[in-house]
Amino acid sequence: MTEPERSHLSGKALEVYDRMLERVQSRLRAIQETSLDTLEEEVDKAIEAEQELEEMTRDEISLLGTYLQRDLEHLIHFVDETGEGLAEWLQLDLALLEQRLTERLLSVADQTLVDTLALRQKLESHDAGQYIAGEVATAGMFQCLNCEHMLCLTSTSHLEPCEACGSQYYKRVTSIWPRKEG
Questions:
Q1: Angle between helices 58-82 and 13-30 (to 10 degrees)
Q2: 49 falls in which pLDDT band (50, 70, 90)?
Q3: What pTM does this model have?
Q4: Calpha distance 63→97 (Å, rounded)
Q5: Which terminus in the chain has less CB density within 10 A, N or C?
Q6: Distance (Å) of CA 165 to CA 6, 7, 63, 121, 162
């Protein structure tokens, strides 16, 4: 990715994303009942905490918060729909991942499923969305929407343009979700 393509995020983006994820996971672990609203509130609190550190601009931190919310909602939706776990969502050999990342994501997903009905109502109106080159995303498999070339992230990273065709657009690929029709 060229420097202009990354100009909207500083060099600390990946570290801050992981720190925000850890904060959200830690707070959700302490809460008895978790819903999508609670998840959104905790992401907002993580954004506020990062803004106080003043390591990045408000806009950069808000953008990372959006990326974090998207990744967590996608994971929650997948687990809720399929009953499957983190390994299927990532479609990676978990041995490739840091144990810390695995524990954090799995913890968030398990606690968020407590309020399944509220979650389903909110997620049905939510489009999991596309991923765009330059965005921050957590580990997993991504498929180019133009040429279907696969990109494997083994840790939180910036998405690079497709190496096969240069496209900027991806979708997250999981082993069995979304369900195929027919």
A1: 50
A2: very high
A3: 0.63
A4: 24
A5: C
A6: 19, 22, 26, 37, 6
Distances in whole angstroms, Cα of residue 41 to Cα of each of 27, 49, 83, 146: 10, 12, 25, 35
Comparing C-alpha atoms, which of 172, 76, 71 is closest to residue 124? Answer: 76
Q: How many other C-beta atoms lie within 10 A of the C-beta of residue 77?
A: 22
User: If you search the block for the tokens 């900027």, which residue do you land on?
Assistant: 168
Side chain identity at 35, as an amino acid letter?
S
Asked if residue 70 lies in contact with residue 62, where contact means CB atoms within 8 angstroms, the answer is: no
- What value does the mean pLDDT take over residues 43-60? 90
**pLDDT by residue (tens digit) across 66-93?**
999 888 888 877 877 887 766 676 665 4
Give the chain's largest Cα–Cα span: 51
CB 86 within 8 A of CB 112: no
Rg (CA), the chain: 16
How far is 79 from 89, CA to CA, in rounded Å? 8
Burial group, residue 160, by CB count within 10 angstroms (0-12, 13-18, 19+): middle
